[in-house]
Design brief:
By secondary structure, this protein is α/β, with parallel strands linked by helices. It has one domain: TIM Barrel (Alpha-Beta Barrel), CATH 3.20.20.70. Helices cover about 40% and strands about 15% of the residues. It has an eight-stranded parallel β-sheet. The N and C termini lie close together (about 10 Å). About 50% of the residues are buried.
Length: about 350
């Protein structure tokens, strides 16, 4: 049940991938622990510069771990006007004052800069011979994919609909992470990113499996062996789990973030654009409540993400959960404070028990 085409291609003992959560959560300790316990550890490199990425790759290799991956954000075209910035800053100013953090002259990202960084990240992946590279927010160019595959790097796309999964396959990538609406953090949608486009994972898996040929990796609300077994029964060949790994001891998530998930109920999880300008799922707090009426007017990602950076940083320093981006999937009641080893062992024990009772 746990050995299939995907596990053989990725050389995994178990079909479990740790979601590449950007922003410091996927520490070297977390990535190596997952890979050392039979899964696939992934670096969330979306916000990393090339030097940062190279440093962490080398750290992981020094731990004698060679089966791991890197996830990159594919740049999306965006525009922002002076009026957009003025309105956003006026909206955020009272919150900055609450946190005693002042408006600072931050350098806003440009499309040229993001594209340059993206290609520098790919260059690092190639030079360091990282075996697996996944992508979120769009499909990279066929030229980029071909370059990676020439070096035998396994490529994985992200999709939230059948149509997006077809696009990932058409691009030439080797597998697709299928992200249901239950998933925490940013939505991987790139064809239709509206909130109404949220499709549940259990409905999505069989429709995609019946449509494409490449392996499907299920993501969204999966926290234990039951979620893994259900995904495999529906035709997925593996799962990608984020929130379950976020609360582990090895995770780099802020302690306030971990505790918030451990004490949150499922009806407190919402989809919001308030922090980054891109639809993402996390725990409702004062920030999301204050901004929600204005979400349609916010600057697009990554501009809004840059404008809220000082707020998120100040809140983290003050251990103030009301103004932090507390990303989480829809199954927080299943989260536990434990080691990666304990989590992996529990998942496999549960799956084997389910298999015996078939």
């Amino acid at each position: 049940m746990l050995s299939n085409t995907l596990t053989k291609l990725l050389q995994l003992k178990y079909p479990i991938i740790q979601a590449p959560m950007a922003g410091g959560i996927t520490t070297t300790k977390l990535v190596t622990a997952v890979s050392s316990n039979g899964g696939l550890g992934m670096i969330g490199a979306g916000y990393m510069g090339p030097d940062q990425l190279r440093h962490q790759i080398k750290e992981i290799k020094q731990k004698d771990v060679h089966n791991f991956g890197v996830n990159l954000f594919v740049p999306n075209d965006f525009t922002v006007t002076d009026n957009d910035l003025r309105n956003a800053n006026e909206l955020l100013q009272p919150i900055r004052e609450t946190l005693n953090t002042h408006t600072e002259q931050v350098e806003l990202p440009t499309m040229d800069q993001m594209t340059k960084t993206f290609h520098e990240q790919i260059k690092v992946v190639l030079e360091e011979r990282v075996p697996i590279c996944s992508f979120t927010f769009a499909v990279p160019s066929k030229e980029d994919i071909a370059t990676l595959k020439q070096q035998d790097i396994f490529t994985i796309g992200t999709a939230t609909t059948v149509q997006e999964a077809m696009e990932v396959e058409h691009s030439g990538m080797d597998a697709v992470v299928l992200q249901g609406v239950e998933a925490g953090g940013h939505r991987g949608s790139f064809i239709d990113a509206t909130e109404e486009n949220g499709i549940g994972l259990m409905a999505l898996i069989p429709q995609v499996v019946d449509t494409i040929e490449i392996p499907v990796i299920a993501a969204g609300g999966i926290m234990d062996g039951r979620g893994l077994a259900a995904s495999l029964c529906l035709g997925a060949q593996g799962v990608q789990m984020g929130t379950a790994f976020l609360t582990t001891e090895e995770s780099g998530a802020h302690d306030v973030h971990k505790e918030a998930i451990l004490h949150t109920q499922e009806n407190e999880i919402i989809l919001t654009r308030s922090f980054s300008g891109k639809l993402a799922q996390g725990i409702k707090n004062d920030f999301t409540e204050q901004i929600k009426e204005h979400e349609d007017d916010l600057p697009a990602f990554p501009i809004q993400n840059t404008l809220t950076q000082s707020i998120r940083k100040a809140a983290s320093q003050e251990n103030n959960k009301e103004f932090m981006s507390l990303w989480s999937g829809q199954s927080p009641r299943l989260a536990k404070k434990q080691t990666v080893k304990n989590l992996m062992e529990t998942i496999i024990t549960q799956v084997n028990k389910i298999k015996r009772n078939e």
